[in-house]
Amino acid sequence: MTEPIIRTIQAHELEDLLLLYKDLHKQDDPLERGERLQQQWARMLANPGMEIWVMESEGSLAASCTLVIVDNLTRGGRPYALIENVVTRADQRRRGYGHAVLRQVIESAREQGCYKVMLMTSSKSDEVHQFYEGAGFTKGVKTGFIVKLD
């Protein structure tokens, strides 16, 4: 058995990531495969402010999250970071993979000079909230608002 590793995603792993995302949003409509998807994927990979981190275990993606670094003109010009799409494959949960990926992503944000890292969850579950608190996040510091565009 090989030790799990945390790394940024590789270009050829799009289908593996989309498979993992099925455990994130089960109700999502499937993405149409084709040139448009490939162009979107290429833009994401080329975006210097976006990092998709993964935990690889036994040759497949077990967990992932996306880090977005946002340039900023306040806080001494220090950027801030947003985390999205935090997911661990259903059969790989409770092994510490999610926390491990979040620790790596937070460290990446720190190394890039970010003054804070934010994430939001739509989950009302105390268990999910405790997961994020266990990863170092503090609930209730700010109030989030969302405008749904679809």
Q: How does this model look, in words?
A:
This protein has about 150 residues and is an alpha+beta fold. It has a single domain (about 5-135), classed as Aminopeptidase, CATH 3.40.630.30. It contains four helices and five strands, in the order E-H-H-E-E-E-H-E-H. It has helices at about 15-20, 35-45, 95-110, 125-135; strands spanning about 5-10, 50-55, 60-70, 80-90, 115-120. It has a five-stranded mixed β-sheet with strand order 1-2-3-4-5, with helices on both faces.
Throw out a few tags for this protein:
single chain, 150 residues, alpha+beta, Aminopeptidase, five-stranded mixed sheet, 4 helices, globular
Question: What's the number of helices?
Answer: 4
Using DSSP, what is the number of strands? 5
Question: In percent terms, what proportion of residues is strand?
Answer: 15-25%
Distance between the termini: 44 Å
Estimated radius of gyration: 16 Å
**Order of SSEs:** EHHEEEHEH
The CATH architecture designation is 3-Layer(aba) Sandwich
Give the overall shape. globular
- The fold-level CATH name is Aminopeptidase
CATH superfamily: Gcn5-related N-acetyltransferase (GNAT)
Give the neighbour order of strands across the main sheet.
Answer: 1-2-3-4-5
Instruction: Output mean pLDDT.
Output: 94
What is the total number of structural domains? 1
- Unreliable runs: none
